[in-house]
Predict the 3D structure of the following.
Amino acid sequence: MSKRVLIPFRHAVKLKPYVDAVVAAGLEAIPGDVARPVSLAGADALLLMGGTDVNPARYHETAHPETDEPDDVRDGIELELIDQALARDFPLLAICRGLQILNVYHGGTLVQHLPSAAKHAAEAMDKGAPVHEIEIEPETLLSGIAGSSRWQVNSRHHQAADRIGNALEITARDTSDGVIEALERRDKRFVLAVQWHPEDQAIASGEQRRLFERFACAI
């Protein structure tokens, strides 16, 4: 029986790299359009993808001028899916916006616009091209996947985790400016959130594909 991963989305055009990455890891993708109700029924795991900024009202702040217009429907659906996935101890992989909304779910806050935003939002012809280095904390889920204390990652974001939510721990930072690049929960089977976009690297890079393969092994 195939292992099935729910991927909630707003824009179908952004889905393909995520679907390709989970399929490469031997999983079946179940896209869930947030224009309609989305459920974990029939799924074995949850993947949260990138996208629009989380509404700052969700963490009791007013919007910065650079913050996107909110998508409250998507926020609400993803927060409920996180709640259900954690309650069932489903493996959860969160990418970019996914890391941010996972932190907000746990009571954390976000930096709404990074001073080094131009660096972290670097756009290249090859979206999988490495942009900066991260340092990974030892004896963490991510360090076990990486097999190294440092990784070169791509980058496409202008926000980041600020105050870290309850039960989460920081497991990677940018080596030059300290921006938080990964969060984990050790008390769950598999909860890993990364700020970069491994889905854009997973097909060409066996190194980044290991994130999805380890996610698959947890199901």
